[in-house]
Task: inverse folding
């Protein structure tokens, strides 16, 4: 999925109206929200008393607000929270923040209703808290849905279109992104490569699968990242400027040797070089379709090529 808006640098931390220096979540009962609530009532200002409650910026240009450990709000406090939230959202919008993440402890669930009345929706819930979001950026929300695990797919071809990524680490990587629900692996690779580089291609095989647990980009769940071999049918690059800094066709040998590539990219480049020289049948995990017994639909099975004598065994 191509990002359309660059993230603000963390140094330009999101602020809340009336907020002072700290970016932290609330400290606990008696401080933070309680003080802020009293302040809000006392001064009658919509936001002035909420100085302790700060949004923490994230690397995607969003802002996160933790309501943890606050005293259970009473009716009037909910109204004050609503005024604070409305004023804060207006300020975050002015700052160019793309999204708000509101973490609401279960005992303060009534605040979720206040937030919902201002356009927030549930993103996910864990045992003790719910997380609500509101998209502030342009167009429809591009926030990823919550993960049970997530599947990322990238594609390459033996002249390799590579992205020089802006976020996390500046390193060459294969273009790719998150699979949509119900989307086949090969379709994700072809779609993501087109969206991020403008290059049209056809799925050939799976080359590698990486499994990584507690992945920060998957909300702490497990991330499966699959790299596919694609056959390009167009060669002009028109890349997504928000998601990458540079995008170039790279020589496979150079990609296998450069230090400026992620480890997974280097290893897959070496694998491809081997396949290119010795035959792709040495490296390809290919796909076959079979009828699904229970649903009457078809599923895709990925495995190394089977010799005909084994394939036709009865
Ligand atoms: N080792 C490697 O070479 C790399 C592998 N990967 C894998 O690729 C997959 C993900 O690829 P991507 O290109 O990141 O996916 P993607 O191309 O689908 O883009 C995801 C989009 O969602 C946006 N996004 C994600 N979380 C967000 C949030 N909290 N708030 C706002 N916007 C948010 C991002 O800015 C980006 O525009 C994963 O499986 C990951 O493990 C990603 C980077 C490098
Ligand atoms: Mg991507």
Result:
């Amino acid at each position: 999925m191509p990002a359309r808006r660059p993230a603000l640098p963390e140094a330009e931390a999101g602020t809340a109206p009336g907020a002072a220096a700290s970016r932290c979540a609330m400290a606990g009962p008696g401080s933070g929200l309680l003080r802020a609530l009293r302040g809000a009532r006392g001064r009658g200002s919509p936001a002035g008393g909420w100085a302790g409650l700060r949004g923490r910026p994230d690397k995607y240009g969003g802002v996160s607000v933790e309501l943890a450990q606050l005293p259970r709000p009473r009716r009037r406090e909910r109204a004050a929270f609503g005024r604070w939230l409305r004023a804060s959202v207006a300020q975050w919008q002015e700052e160019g923040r793309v999204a708000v993440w509101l973490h609401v402890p279960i005992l303060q669930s009534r605040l979720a209703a206040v937030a919902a009345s201002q356009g927030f929706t549930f993103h996910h819930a864990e045992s003790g808290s719910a997380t609500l979001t509101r998209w502030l950026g342009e167009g429809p929300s591009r926030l990823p849905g919550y993960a049970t695990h997530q599947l990322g797919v990238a594609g390459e071809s033996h002249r390799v279109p590579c992205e020089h990524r802006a976020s996390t680490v500046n390193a060459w990587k294969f273009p790719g992104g998150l699979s949509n629900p119900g989307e086949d692996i090969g379709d994700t690779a072809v779609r993501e490569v087109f969206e991020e580089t403008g290059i049209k291609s056809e799925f050939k095989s799976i080359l590698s699968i990486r499994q990584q647990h507690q992945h920060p980009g998957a909300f702490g769940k497990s991330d499966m990242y699959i790299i596919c071999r694609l056959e390009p049918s167009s060669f002009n690059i028109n890349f997504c400027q928000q998601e990458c800094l540079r995008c170039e066709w790279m020589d496979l040998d150079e990609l296998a040797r450069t230090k400026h590539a992620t480890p997974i990219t280097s290893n897959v480049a070496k694998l491809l070089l081997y396949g290119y020289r010795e035959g792709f049948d040495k490296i390809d995990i290919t796909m076959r379709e079979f009828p699904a017994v229970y649903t009457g639909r078809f599923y895709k099975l990925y495995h190394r090529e089977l010799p005909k004598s084994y394939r036709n065994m009865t």
Notes: Residues 149-303 form a domain with the Nucleoside Triphosphate Pyrophosphohydrolase fold (CATH 3.90.79.10). Residues 1-3, 58, 60, 62, 99, 142-144, 152, 173, 176-178, 192, 217, 223, 225, 243, 262, 264-265 surround NAI (ligand 1) (CB under 6 Å). The first helix runs from residue 32 to 43.
